[in-house]
Design goal:
The chain is an alpha/beta fold. It contains 16 helices and 12 strands. The strands form 3 sheets. A 4-stranded parallel sheet has the order 2-1-3-4, sandwiched between helices. It has a 4-stranded parallel sheet with strand order 6-5-7-8. Helix 14 links the parallel strand 11 and strand 12. Helix 4 (58-67) crosses helix 16. It binds iron/sulfur cluster. Iron/sulfur cluster (SF4) binds at residues 22, 57, 82-84, 110, 169-171, 232, 263, 265-266. Iron/sulfur cluster binds next to helix 5 and helix 10.
């Protein structure tokens, strides 16, 4: 079986498999560690394996390479991009940054290495609030690339000096408000758990707003037995494993012909591609050293902030 071959090869090559919560269930099952962007960054920085196979999208594998330059970092499918990272091209962002020379630049980790190199402090949805609060209140902040998360942070902190880049994730932008309201009527009492990358009207009807790992934790703490989940549905594999007695209902997308809102990029990662990458030790992720050094600083600045 493919999964058995992967586990054997992983041991032989002293490789570690890091997988994001949004990948396919069978991919999560062969991973040494499954987590959200922050936890995966921390694992990538701390591993003593020779090889990191990153079961996720390209910017995540790049982040692993930035933090562990001496390790071989493999990505099962280099076409696994990210619509949010793609919404923030480096030349345009550099020009945007130059217009606001007094601002501290905070970028979500969902960006390319080039954007991280133009950033002062990275953040994830788990620690974004702490990162923004760590910056003096009178200091302007550029926040990129997710406009919805940026607007949510503005609201939470009351800051009026945040300058937002106009980017978005296609998955979290495209949940149906009407569909969620219909589910609330169908399951009265089921809390709506939403990711802050969702549009503001969606967050308004949510009972809890938090990062992927915060949503996962909240589902355990909240005594309800049924939840409406408004983020990429891959997380439900871990939710069902952790809380088998509870029911999780994926929020519907705007496109009524689809049952749920999958991230097409995350789903490109499959077991055969993982096996192939381990066997052939490619595709390998590389980052030019001058970019890596600058990008590492912004990620380390994030990791140094205690939440
Ligand atoms: S869910 Fe959105 S932010 Fe996450 S990898 Fe997919 S496109 Fe990018």
């Amino acid at each position: 079986m493919t999964a058995d071959k992967i586990l054997k090869l992983k041991r032989e090559k002293n490789a570690v498999i890091l997988a994001h919560y949004y990948t396919r269930p069978e991919v999560q099952e062969v991973a040494d560690f499954v987590g959200d962007s922050l936890a995966l960054s921390e694992r990538a920085a701390a591993t003593d394996a020779d090889t990191i196979l990153f079961a996720g999208v390209y910017f995540m594998a790049e982040t692993a390479k930035i933090l562990s330059p001496d390790k071989k970092v493999l990505i099962p499918d280099p076409e696994a991009g990210c619509s949010l990272a793609a919404s923030c091209p480096a030349p345009e962002f550099a020009a945007f940054r130059d217009k606001h020379p007094d601002a501290v630049v905070v970028s979500y980790v969902n960006t390319t290495a080039d954007i991280k190199a133009l950033t002062d402090i990275c953040c994830t949805s788990t620690n974004a609030l702490d990162v923004i609060k760590s910056i003096p209140a009178d200091q302007p902040v550029i926040f990129a690339p997710d406009r919805n998360l940026g607007a949510y942070l503005q609201k939470q902190t009351g800051r009026t000096n945040m300058i937002l880049w106009d980017g978005a994730c296609h998955v979290h932008e495209e949940f149906s408000l009407e569909g969620i309201i219909a589910l609330k009527k169908q399951y009265p009492g089921a809390p709506v758990l939403a990711h802050p990358e969702c549009r503001e009207p969606i967050l308004t009807v949510a009972d809890f707003v938090g990062s992927t790992s915060a949503i996962l934790n909240h589902a355990g703490i909240n005594p309800a037995d049924t939840f409406i989940v408004v983020t990429e549905p891959g997380i439900m594999h871990e939710m069902k494993k952790k809380y088998p007695q509870k029911t999780f209902i994926p929020a519907p997308p705007l496109d009524s012909t689809c049952a749920c809102n999958d991230c097409a990029y995350m789903k490109l990662v499959t077991l055969p591609k993982i096996l192939d990458a381990l066997e052939n030790e490619r595709p390998e992720v590389t980052v030019p050293e001058h970019i890596r050094i600058a990008a590492e600083k912004s990620i380390r600045n994030m990791l140094d902030i205690k939440c």
